[in-house]
UniProtKB/TrEMBL annotation:
Domain AAA: 3-178
Organism of provenance: Adhaeribacter soli
Species classification: Bacteria, Pseudomonadati, Bacteroidota, Cytophagia, Cytophagales
Protein name, entry field: ParA family protein
Length: 258
């Protein structure tokens, strides 16, 4: 069974999609069979690896609401070992449409169960919300990565997120673990960045990944080429840091590096 990791934080713009894309691409580069699931109506992960969400007719939405088989919507990416379950804007409607479905929190779990043994890792990019789709992602997942931006108000909303995770652990997914807190957009020159790192490490200690993601222009420009950073500029600090994160996760999970 593949390990399912959700990338979640209801705070917007903290690096969820950048982390989901580049972690997934790095795991694929290490030759782990990886599936990236775009669970955000913004569809940034879909466009970020080169697909136009406007061309997508079927998404995770149809799997959750209409019971479509997820196998039928998986797209092979241009990267070996990396597949995508795309998103499009209709996913916005899924929350409302699912409200009266039985087991509405478990629709994504049911959808992914059918294919999880084909992958080593399944990475879910969540939207900036703690709504039903994110609850579905956290119910489907074995663990969650929480990106925290090294900026003002970094810890804002984290209490609420951790509380939501606790509720999901107690009611919907007792096995859900926190894979780690990931510090993103770190700028070594800024005192503030360093203060955030210190504060987060003080609060969360071993929960924080050793790998810290620097602020790096290659990471911000690579989605406009429809590429993960590792293909846009493999030697960039951004690409290397996500490769390090992938290695850290592989080691932590004692998966034999290939
Ligand atoms: N390490 C980084 N260095 C430079 N720019 C970054 C970095 N990480 C993310 N960015 C940029 O910051 C912006 C927000 O990042 P991203 O889209 O990954 O966040 P998000 O949490 O997925 O946002 P949303 O909440 O809207 O889904 C994007 O423009 C992205 O390119
Ligand atoms: Mg995003």
């Amino acid at each position: 069974m593949g390990k399912i990791i959700a990338v979640a934080n209801q705070k917007g713009g903290v690096g969820k999609t950048t982390s989901a894309i580049n972690l997934a691409a790095s795991l694929a580069a290490l030759e782990f069979k990886t599936l990236l699931v775009d669970a955000d109506p913004q569809a940034n992960a879909t466009s970020g690896i080169g697909f136009d969400p406007g061309d997508i007719s079927k998404s995770i939405y149809e799997c959750m609401v209409d019971g479509l088989n997820v196998e039928d919507i998986i797209i092979k990416s241009n990267i070996d070992f990396l597949d995508l379950v795309p998103s499009h804007i209709d996913l916005v409607g899924a929350e409302v449409e699912m409200i009266n479905l039985p087991n509405r929190e478990e629709k994504m779990k049911e959808a992914l169960k059918k294919i999880s043994d084909r992958y080593d890792f399944i990475i879910i990019d969540c939207s900036p919300s703690l709504g039903l789709i994110t609850v579905n992602a956290l119910t489907a997942a074995n663990s969650v990565i929480i990106p925290v931006q090294c900026e003002y108000f970094a810890l804002e909303g984290l209490g609420k997120l951790l509380n939501t995770i606790k509720i999901i652990q107690s009611r919907l997914n007792t096995d859900l673990e926190i894979e780690g807190i990931l510090l993103t957009m770190y700028d070594v020159r800024l005192r503030l960045s360093n203060q955030v790192v210190e504060e987060v490490k003080l609060h969360f200690q071993q929960m924080v990944f050793d790998t810290i993601i620097p602020r790096n222009v290659k990471l911000s420009e690579s989605p406009s080429f429809g590429l993960p950073a590792i293909l846009h500029d493999a030697d960039s600090k951004g690409a290397i840091s996500y490769l390090n994160l992938a290695r850290e996760i592989v080691e932590k999970n004692a998966v034999l590096a290939k």
